[in-house]
Design brief:
Blueprint (H helix, E strand, L loop, with lengths): L2 E6 L2 H12 L22 E8 L14 E2 L7 H14 L4 E9 L4 E5 L4 H5 L1 E8 L5 E5 L2 E3 L5 E5 L5 E5 L5 E8 L1
Antiparallel strand pairs: 1-9, 2-3, 2-4, 4-11, 5-10, 6-9, 6-11, 7-8, 7-10
Helix pairs in contact: 1-2
Length: 178
């Protein structure tokens, strides 16, 4: 499995999530868990971490236990949507939830997610804003243009990368479910 289109979220849900994200300017880049460690493939993204491991724990990169961060309180529509997804997908263990933004001409460099987290959780990308034409998610030799409103399941245990050749920010919500 490389890319599986799970569903397209309804317009009301899409608009509700986009509205929440549009007013969250002060929350972008507060926690840099994914972006500032040595060798990060995500140096060009800016995140809002909504749910995840204890970042002060022994090994947050491999910690499977996750809890909501205080930032989650600013996103009730997202929280409700995640709840609906867990029910419809019958996957009730929620891992990390990350809002991630990649500017035009930005890159997420080729990498493989390793360790306990990608072995246990399935990774989903909900596209809040596709950034326009020219945005590609690449896994191995396959590439996919993910469009606004779509929910994709992706296999991040394979080498993957992202190119934003669009005219605006690409904004995704990453959700890990088991």
């Amino acid at each position: 499995m490389k890319f599986i289109l799970q569903r397209v979220l309804d317009t009301d849900t899409q608009n509700g999530i986009k509205d929440e994200v549009d007013v969250a300017d002060s929350l972008w880049g507060v926690k840099t868990f994914r972006t500032d460690h040595e060798g990060s493939a995500h140096k060009e993204v800016v995140d809002i971490l909504l749910r995840g491991p204890d970042l002060d724990g022994d090994d947050p990169f491999n910690d499977l236990y996750c809890e909501d961060y205080t930032t989650m309180h600013s996103f009730p529509r997202i929280k409700s949507t995640i709840n609906d997804l867990t029910i419809s997908l019958k996957m009730f263990n929620v891992g990390r939830i990350i809002l991630t933004r990649l500017a035009p001409d930005g890159v997420i460099y080729p990498h493989v997610d390793e360790g306990k987290v990608p072995e246990y959780y399935q990774r989903f990308h909900y596209v809040i804003d596709d950034g326009g034409d020219g945005n590609l998610f690449i896994i191995g030799n396959s590439s996919q243009r993910m469009k606004t409103g779509q929910l994709w399941e992706v296999d991040v245990r394979q080498k993957h990368a992202v190119l934003n050749m669009g005219e605006r920010d690409r904004v995704h919500m990453i959700v890990d479910l088991h």
